[in-house]
Amino acid sequence: MKVENGESLFDAFMPHAHQKELTEELELRGRRVTAGARFSALFGVTLLVIFVFELLTVPFIAGAVGIHIIIGLVAVPLVLVKLATAAYRFTRFYAGDTEFVSAGPPWLPLRILAPLLVASTVLVIGSGIELVVAGPLSFSDTFLGAAHTLVSLIWFFLLALHALAYYLRSYHSARKDFQSVLRRVRSRKKREGAFLRVSTLVVTLVLGVLLALPFKSGIRMWEGAFRAGVDTYYSTPATKSHIAKYPARAEVLAKRRLAQHLKSAQLIRAGVQGTSSGS
């Protein structure tokens, strides 16, 4: 695939990915544009760290499903802020705001990637929350369990491209913000921009933790299902009582889905162990 100047997309992508500073800062663009870009960078780096931990739980999902769910819930407010920042720049640009128009849009391939990444992120998180609420005994799990896994694979691929394109400049921008806050604490000088961004990040993380609290019962249900296994879990009186609230076919479908969850976890774990032993 060729870009406008005739070079390949890969050749154009790598210099873009190795850029160490935000374009808005390099060219001394408007204050609101730069502030929005640094907000996006700070929350992007934090989300990347959170998503890495989320992915690390997947090979051990049978024993780490509770942690997997909690990490996903903590990420929800962060994702909302990240999307709100991107939406603000999008709307101001197409509304004709001079400052944003002069800054220009992001690189075209990344503009094409963005809506796909947003849609897959919303689907992954939305289906995950619905699965937690519905539990392993529901019709929702019959469909959304498979959909959550499939969309997660697509989301991971898109996220990897997005992270590769932005990680270096986002890392430097986030590091500057944290350093500015530390210098402010030591010297008691005002650096409102960085302090506001980091404070917003801390508050959003706290909101994420609080968001996970109402889901404790759903988390315990999934932990019990994975810990006990299919036959044991569905033979307990409490589980039978819960199944009685659904049509008879719900039990068959729910058992099948949980068995697939456990089998997927075993296959992923075997693949990870094989890779480790091979290296």
Give a count of the beta strands, DSSP E runs of length 2 or more: 0
Radius of gyration: 22 Å
- End-to-end Cα distance: 34 Å
**Structural class of the secondary elements?**
mainly alpha
Low-confidence stretches: 243-247
Give the count of structural domains.
1
Order of helices and strands: HHHHHHHHHHHH
The rough form would be described as: elongated
User: Share of helix among residues?
Assistant: over 70%
Largest sheet: none
Strand content: under 5%
The overall pLDDT, averaged over residues, is 77
Total of helices: 12
Chart the SSEs and their pairings:
Layout: H1 9-17, H2 23-26, H3 31-57, H4 61-94, H5 98-103, H6 108-134, H7 139-187, H8 192-212, H9 216-228, H10 230-233, H11 237-243, H12 248-278
Helix pairs in contact: 1-7, 3-4, 3-7, 3-8, 4-6, 4-8, 4-9, 6-7, 7-8, 7-12
Describe the structure.
By secondary structure, the protein is mainly alpha-helical. The protein has one domain. It has twelve helices and no strands. The protein has helices at residues 9-17, 23-26, 31-57, 61-94, 98-103, 108-134, 139-187, 192-212, 216-228, 230-233, 237-243, 248-278. Helix 7 packs antiparallel against helix 8. It is elongated, with a radius of gyration of 22 Å. The two termini are 34 Å apart.
